[in-house]
């Protein structure tokens, strides 16, 4: 069930479905990279006061169901998530990743998918994400 948040004179409920895709659709989100990417995502979201309602991966992309405050800029959030996870995943798996990306330290595509979830219920989206993989 969705719960409205209140802050000062604002009442809000901002939830987004975010999908990040591995560069060149490489199937890199297998264990243990999958677990580390999820943990890194949770770590950076906690620092930014962003709630991850649910998160799951397929082999080449990751789904997030996020809840934010009105002060959060969506593009900055995505940039932070992508850069933070890329930096740390390269520190953990330099040999494995250099087999796929030999010119630059990259992990995600330049683009992303994001939408508010106002047009579907949270439960429908939650079930969809949890069935990934």
Give a concise summary.
This protein has 4 helices and 6 strands; from the N terminus they run E-E-E-H-E-E-H-H-E-H.
Descriptive key words:
alpha+beta; Alpha-Beta Plaits; 4-stranded antiparallel β-sheet; 36% helix
Question: In words, what does this structure look like?
Answer:
The protein is an alpha+beta fold and 133 residues long. The protein has a single domain, classed as 2-Layer Sandwich (Alpha-Beta Plaits). The chain is built from four helices and six strands. It has helices at 33-47, 74-92, 94-98, 122-130, and strands at residues 5-7, 10-12, 14-21, 51-57, 61-68, 113-116. The strands form two sheets. Strands 4-5-3-6 form a four-stranded antiparallel sheet, with helices on both faces. The mean pLDDT is 93.
Task: Provide the fold topology.
Layout: E1 5-7, E2 10-12, E3 14-21, H1 33-47, E4 51-57, E5 61-68, H2 74-92, H3 94-98, E6 113-116, H4 122-130
Antiparallel strand pairs: 1-2, 3-5, 3-6, 4-5
How much beta, percentage-wise? 15-25%
Enumerate the spans where pLDDT stays under 50 for 5 or more consecutive residues: none
Helix amount, in percent?
25-40%
Provide the spatial order of strands within the biggest beta sheet. 4-5-3-6
- Can you tell me the overall shape? globular
What's the CATH topology name?
Answer: Alpha-Beta Plaits
- Total helix count? 4
Broad CATH class:
Alpha Beta
Gyration radius (Cα, Å) is: 15 Å
> How many angstroms does the end-to-end distance come to?
25 Å
CATH architecture: 2-Layer Sandwich
Element order: H for helix, E for strand: EEEHEEHHEH
Secondary structure: number of strands = 6
How many discrete structural domains? Answer: 1
Mean pLDDT: 93
Structural class by secondary-structure content? alpha+beta
Largest sheet: 4 strands, antiparallel
CATH superfamily, please? Transposase IS200-like
């Amino acid at each position: 069930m969705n719960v409205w948040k209140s802050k000062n004179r604002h009442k809000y409920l901002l939830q987004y479905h975010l999908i990040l895709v591995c560069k060149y659709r490489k199937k890199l989100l297998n264990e243990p990279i999958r677990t580390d990417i999820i943990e890194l995502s949770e770590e950076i979201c906690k620092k930014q006061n962003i709630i991850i309602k649910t998160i799951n991966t397929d082999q080449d992309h990751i789904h997030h169901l996020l809840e934010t405050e009105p002060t959060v800029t969506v593009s900055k959030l995505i940039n932070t998530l992508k850069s933070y996870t890329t930096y740390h995943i390269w520190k953990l798996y330099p040999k494995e990743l250099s087999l796929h990306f030999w010119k630059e330290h990259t992990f995600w595509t330049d683009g992303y998918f994001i939408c508010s979830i106002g047009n579907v219920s949270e439960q429908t989206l939650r079930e969809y994400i949890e069935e990934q993989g």
